[in-house]
Hints:
Blueprint (H helix, E strand, L loop, with lengths): L1 H32 L4 H36 L5 H12 L15
Amino acid sequence: MRIKRSVARFFGLMVLPAVTIAVVGYFGAYGIWGERGVLALEDTQAKLGVAQDQLAQLSETRTRLEHRIGLMEQGSPDPDLVEELARTRLMDGAPNQVAVSRDAH
Length: 105
């Protein structure tokens, strides 16, 4: 009877620490390997770096296009830009002139 009581007391006292260890282990593992854990942070930072590079490229393109639009919207459009656009769109030139297409810049 005495052994039964001591075994029951021992297991009764061990329930709370066991549950605590299980809960801490679960949340600790999730904090490392989980969807928002430490290892996922590295992947997210890499994706953020790629997205920031794309944003920088798009911002540069937008600035360049805004400048070209501004040149066309003034009271009198920039004659050099008008000629450039006409030559690239029409591929037309003067007599004895060869038109070579080029990539837009």
